[in-house]
Amino acid sequence: MPDFGRVLCAIDLTEPSRRVLDCALWWARRHGADVSVLHVHRLVTTTPDTGSLHDETARGAARGEAPLDPDEHRERQSDVERFVEQSRTDGIQIEVLLDEDTSVADAIVARADALAADLVIAGAGSDPSSEHPVLGRTTAALLRDAPCSVLVVPAPAQDVVNPCLGGLNRVMCAISLSETSRQVLEYAAVLADESTAHLTVVHVVELFSEVAALAYDFDAHRDARVEPACDELVAMVAAVVCRDKPVEEIVAQGTASHEILKLAAEGSADIIVLGRAAGRSAAGAGRPTGQAVAREARCPVLFVYAIGFEASRPFTDNQGYRAVSRPA
Predict the structure, then answer these.
(1) What number of CA atoms fall less than 13 Å from residue 303's CA on the CB side?
(2) Better-scored residue on pLDDT, 74 or 222
(3) Largest pairwise CA distance in the chain
(4) What stretch of H or E contains 154?
(5) Are 245 and 193 in contact (CB under 8 A)?
(6) Pairing label, strands 247-253, 94-101
(7) Sign of the CA dihedral with 110 first, then 111, 113, and 119 last
(8) What CATH number matches the domain at 1-165, 3.40.50.720, 3.40.190.10, 3.40.50.880, 3.40.50.620?
(9) What pairs with residue 42 in β-bridges?
(10) What per-residue string of b and e applies to 199-226 under the rule 16 or more CB within 10 Å gives b?
């Protein structure tokens, strides 16, 4: 399972990032990890020769500021330290960092590289100009580029308790049954075991919608896909999860993100565990499925950085799921 000995927590000094910091400190207590808390002062993007904004589009979207002078840097550093001090927990080693960059995501990725971080924790964010407006441009970039696992923490909701304060009672792990799904499941199982939480393991089967329009027996096609997936899922869970641990296996049929989010809501999941690509050019969590789950989940979503991660199978819009019992 991953060793999360070094956690990098990205904050923006807003109240939603207080929730992110609380999750980072909770994670550090659970794993005996050191925490680096990073705040990035976003700089305005300028051209190298004129110092002007690139164009009207960039000018309208730019929200950065001028570089901090030494006095401003010290003052901002103090602001970050005060923010962290309000949540500081005895026994946890916390390093407070302040960087300046035109890209918040690039700064976080660079720090994660420099620190050899095992986990980056960030808020889901919100950016109306982003391709993923609720997820936010920075978090979407982290899911694509971060060199380690990423924990995405949603903005607080009135009816949702922060599981990093209330504890984990239900862990959902969604796997693709690829070669590295076992790595993802192993960590989810350990996480559930550490918290004495109920574990639900989900796999979503693709069923091409165009098959229904052809002169094929759709029921036979579905059974030919679903039954082997049930067998694979049960076998993998039996090989990874101790038999005396509470676990439920579900094979769903439909759009991956829709089914994962629906089952997480129905099961009141406190955290969703997914696989993440090992390699910045790979798709992994940067794909629509991972981004949609991170964007819309009401609980934190952990993207485990799995070595050799392969693209999961494609998904369609056919609905319905079936529970699979553990073999005796």
Answers:
(1) 35
(2) 74
(3) 74
(4) none
(5) yes
(6) unpaired
(7) negative
(8) 3.40.50.620
(9) 101
(10) bbbbbbbbbeeeeeeeeeeeeeebeebb
Of the CA atoms within 13 Å of residue 82, those in its CB half-sphere come to 8
Q: 44-99 pLDDT, tens per residue?
A: 876 444 343 333 334 334 467 899 999 999 999 999 999 998 877 667 889 999 99
How far apart (Å, rounded) are the C-alpha atoms in residues 286 and 293? Answer: 11
The reported pTM is 0.82
The architecture (CATH level 2) of 168-328 comes to: 3-Layer(aba) Sandwich (3.40)
- Could you give the CA distance from residue 44 to residue 65 in angstroms, rounded to a whole number? 5
Helices 104-115 and 137-145 pack at an angle, to 10 degrees, of 30
Q: How many residues does the chain have?
A: 328
In this prediction, residue 206 carries a pLDDT of 72
| Residue pLDDT, tens place only, 248-293 | 999 998 889 999 999 999 999 999 999 986 543 333 444 678 888 9
Confidence of residue 157 (pLDDT cuts 50, 70, 90): low
Residue with tokens 């927590």: 9
Q: State how far the Cα of 200 lies from the Cα of 152, in Å rounded to an integer.
A: 19
C-beta of residue 191 within 8 angstroms of C-beta of residue 273: yes
Cα–Cα distance, 197 to 210 (Å, whole number): 40
- Segments making up each domain of the chain, as ranges: 1-165, 168-328
The CB density around residue 79, as the number of other CB atoms within 10 Å, is: 13
Beta bridge partners of 19: none
